[in-house]
Design a protein that fits this description.
about 280 residues, alpha+beta, 5 helices
Length: about 280
Amino acid sequence: MSHTAHIRSHRKPRSRTASTIAMRAGVAGGILSTVAVAGASAAANAAEPVTQTLELPTLTADLSAQVAQSAEATQLAAANYQLQAERDAAAAAAAKEAAKDLAAAKKAEARKKAAEEARQAAAERASRDSQRTTLAAAADTGSSSVSTSASTSASTATGSAAAVIDFVRAQVGDAYVSGGTGPNSWDCSGLVQAAFRQVGIDLPRVSQDQSTAGTQVSLDNLQPGDILYWGGAGSAYHVAVYVGGGMFVGAQNPSTGVVEKPLSYDPPSGAVRVL
């Protein structure tokens, strides 16, 4: 203990005036009020929900350029798809139109071919009618002599002539087909060629050449096995085989086929002999 502790202080105690006490009380109250308000504010803030705000990054110049390029590329791709679709549609339409044109061309060609065949048939009929008119008188005046000669020849047909006649008569009733060479369908020159092949004679294929293949003979001196022709020698359009008795066998046309007919049915223009 200090040696002065027992000495009573001679200071006068401070007198606290009422104003000082009041001032201090006011300060303390203000402090307490401030603390209370701060506490209430903190409690109120604690009761409210906290919301976080996220800030999106700001587009830079490079990123903006990339976005613009991507949009432009998307638009370009869409335009290309549209263009390709239009091209495909145009190609399909062109192909369809080409197919229609081809079909129309084929039909036109078929009509043209049919008209040409009809014209040729009409020309042949006209030529044959003209030949019939020209030869009608000769056929009438010479029919008796031809018939007499034919009757005699029919009874004396032998050898190769008989073989040719037997062959053509065996085909009577077969169909007529242009270009036909047997065994069940014939055209006129195909039948004649096949008949003479039976006896080892190789005739030309077409009527024009067959009409000059042998020796020309008159119609009033026919023998069985002679080749009859219609039209000019070298330009004949039809041939047949004389079988005697005033009769011939030939592949006439599609409606009659192979038939045996009298000479008066279709008087020939001439005849050749190859046997």
